[in-house]
Specification:
alpha/beta, 5-stranded parallel beta sheet, 3-stranded antiparallel beta sheet, 8 strands, binds cytidine-5'-diphosphate
Length: about 230
């Protein structure tokens, strides 16, 4: 079964997608981590964030590995280096939407994400999974939440990684990123027509996961487990 979970920053996608993957014994794919990894590499190598060709090559060629740490937490490695924390640093968060707007970056990562979904048993989360990467997904979910709640969630998440930023600053960053992501010309963030929308503002993680798991039972795997 392929489940596509999309939504804006801080809507709960990664927490929910991980829990759904665990509950249904599917592989979790954090596509945002891939855009963040390209951004980190570009910043480190001094590649211009305007250079579609150079960024596209980075996205195509980077050696990225999305796996789990010994503690069972998602881990991101680039060329063997653990970048799990580095890709969440404020500078990467500020720049990632610019990198993600490039056509060649999106083309490269889309192909790689489809490759990761080839097993047919995955939960992919991002911005364009249900609309562009896996339009034939068995189940599409679009998560939303109020911006205030999203900022507070993000603050807590970053604190766990030792990064301290005020909720107000995060709210500004989130709104800016939402605007970039939903107004870009290539694969903008939007709710797929056939997605179920869940407003997570007042729901617990458990409640959202229960709802998605129940929907998953209902749909079976008509899409044949392909994107
Ligand atoms: O975790 P958060 O919601 O803050 O963001 P993320 O999932 O780590 O994604 C970071 C950024 O990557 C987004 O703001 C988008 O600009 C971009 N992205 C995208 O364009 N398409 C995706 N499928 C996933 C992420």
């Amino acid at each position: 079964m392929i489940i596509a979970i999309d939504g804006p920053a801080g809507s709960g996608k990664s927490t929910i997608a991980q829990a759904v993957a665990e509950r249904l014994a599917l592989t979790y794919v954090d596509t945002g981590a891939m855009y963040r990894a390209v951004t980190l590499l570009a910043l480190e190598k001094g590649v211009s964030l305007e250079d579609d060709d150079a960024l596209g090559s980075l996205a195509l060629e980077m050696e990225i590995d999305l796996s789990e740490s010994a503690q069972g937490l998602p881990q991101v490695r680039v060329a063997g280096r653990d970048v799990t924390k580095a890709i969440r640093e404020p500078l990467v968060s500020q720049k990632v939407s610019y990198v993600a707007a490039h056509r060649k970056v999106r083309e490269a990562l889309k192909l790689r994400q489809r490759g990761m979904a080839e097993t047919g048993d995955v939960v992919l989360e991002g911005r364009d999974i249900g609309t562009v990467v896996c339009p034939r997904a068995d189940l599409k979910v679009f998560l939303t939440a109020s911006v205030g709640v999203r900022a507070v969630r993000r603050k807590r998440q970053l604190e766990e990684q030792g990064i301290c930023i005020s909720a107000k600053t995060l709210e500004r960053e989130i709104l800016l990123r939402d605007t970039h992501d939903s107004t870009r010309s290539v694969a903008p963030l939007r709710k797929p027509r056939d997605a179920i929308e869940i407003d997570t503002t007042e729901l617990s993680i458990e409640e959202v996961v229960d709802r998605i798991a129940a929907e998953a039972v209902g749909v079976g795997s008509d899409g044949g487990g392909s994107c």
